UniProtKB/TrEMBL annotation:
Record's signal peptide: 1-24
Keywords of the record: Hydrolase, Lipid degradation, Lipid metabolism, Signal
Species for this entry: Streptomyces capillispiralis
SUPFAM superfamilies: alpha/beta-Hydrolases
Residue ranges with Low complexity bias: 21-42
Any Gene Ontology biological process: lipid catabolic process
Segments of this protein annotated with the region Disordered: 21-57
Superkingdom of the source species: Bacteria
GO molecular function, one term: 1-alkyl-2-acetylglycerophosphocholine esterase activity
Gene3D superfamilies for this protein: alpha/beta hydrolase
Name of the protein described by the UniProt record: Platelet-activating factor acetylhydrolase isoform II
Length: 414
């Protein structure tokens, strides 16, 4: 793994969301890996492992559309001189039963994004070029007609961890959509490893270079952390602005934007709670192992975000890796003390930071297919049973949003 990647995760991802350099190994796709060709059928170094993502657990089949959104009201925070901000989002929604066969299943990563993902080698000890990322398919069907009978559906936004693509929470986002939600996943351009736009244009992350430019200075690193979170919150609030007109007409008919929530992993979890603090349109939010302070270790006190200092008056859920709870993560404790809203903190014994991403569903199978040491897996997702981790996360998120977004009129806490 490149040195700058390890450094970036130690300083940027860890500071934003309790990540560690080991989280670099926590990126992948699918729940089952298999050799896609017999030995010798591919050139040396070419992808040889294909993946299958775990099927959603809800009753709905899924449709999906991708949208390019352009915010002309602000300059890009990462590209000097660019007078607009450009994002890609995916919208997952319950689809009409019986029509999905005519619509292909969407890939987990488009080819350009997949190539960039492998090139940065986000997987630590896993040889990324041995995995055929572009061949992985989700369970959502591109352009499938929405199921108009079950709506309107609550809307839930998703933000991934630092450097992660919007697709790296598919195990959770697709399950939530299959249970009767419209889920909007957001790529944070120049933060994510790579974002692929229409026309096969790929924009790559600038964060490794930005971190190197700090020279290791603590205050400059903290400023970079704040810029990263502020950019994400601005992105998410813009998405909330854009959805009423950007959604295709049919999806507008079944999207209940009066019942909107959000969740995210790592920096995305931080952004979810911070966005809810800043924007009353979010009724509830869940943070999957994201620290709420501009610090480099979860247990470091001080430098709290405004959401931790001010608290929240709407429901929130915290889910942490083994050892992360209200007593050990000072920013979480501050949030709980300063909040008057219903909230819950759940810690999964044996889990690690990468447990809350698609890594938990795919890394064990990748390691098995490539004969990698068990330590490659446990360093990223801990010793928890992957199947148990997936079910527990899915059930907690589904219960939380079902409870918090159940009332289509009143924004009162559950």
């Amino acid at each position: 793994m490149p040195t700058r990647r390890a450094t970036l995760l130690a300083a940027v991802a860890a500071a934003l969301a309790a990540a560690t350099p080991a989280h670099a190994a926590g990126r992948g796709t699918g729940s089952a890996a298999s050799r896609s060709a017999t030995p010798g059928s591919r050139e040396a170094g070419a992808p040889s492992v294909r993946l299958t993502l775990p099927a959603p657990g809800g009753p709905h089949v899924l449709g999906t559309v991708s949208l390019r959104l352009v915010d002309t009201s602000r300059p890009d925070p990462w590209v000097p001189g660019r007078p607009y901000r450009e994002l890609m989002v995916d919208v997952r929604y319950p689809a009409r039963p019986g029509v999905t066969r005519a619509h292909p299943r969407a890939p987990h990563m488009r080819s350009g994004a997949a190539a960039a993902f492998a090139a940065l080698n986000n997987l630590g000890e896993v040889p990324a070029d041995r995995v055929d990322w572009a061949a992985t398919l989700t369970h959502a069907h591109e352009g499938a007609p929405a199921d108009l009978r079950g709506g309107p559906y609550p809307v839930v936004l998703y933000s991934p961890g630092v450097l992660d693509p919007r697709t790296f929470g598919t195990t959770l986002t697709d399950d939530l959509a299959s249970r009767g939600h419209m889920v909007v996943t957001v790529d944070h351009t120049y933060d994510a490893t790579a974002v692929e736009f229409p026309g096969d244009r790929v924009e790559h992350t600038v964060l490794p270079a930005r971190l190197e430019a700090t020279g290791g200075d603590e205050e400059r690193i903290r400023a970079l952390l704040e810029q990263t979170v502020q950019a994400r919150v601005a992105d998410l609030r813009f998405v909330l602005d854009a959805l009423p007109s950007a959604l295709p007409k049919e999806l507008r008919r079944v999207a209940d934007l009066s019942r909107t929530g959000m969740f995210g992993h790592s920096a995305g979890g931080f952004a979810a709670l911070q966005t809810m603090h800043d924007d009353r349109r979010l009724r509830a939010a869940a943070d999957l192992d994201g620290v709420l302070a501009y610090v480099q270790e979860p247990g470091d006190p001080g430098h709290y975000s405004t959401v931790a200092r001010n608290g929240l008056d709407r429901p929130f859920l915290l889910m942490g890796k083994d050892g992360n709870d209200l007593a050990t993560v000072p920013s979480w404790g501050a949030l709980a003390r300063n909040s008057g809203a219903w909230h819950r903190c759940v810690t999964l014994p044996g889990s690690a930071h990468g447990t809350y991403s698609d890594a938990v569903a795919v890394l064990p199978r990748i390691a098995r297919a490539l004969d990698l040491p068990r330590g490659v897996v446990t360093a990223v997702i801990g010793t928890i049973s992957p199947a148990r981790a997936v079910v527990t996360q899915r059930d907690h998120l589904a219960a939380f949003f079902a409870r918090s977004l159940r009332d289509p009129v009143s924004p009162a806490a559950p």
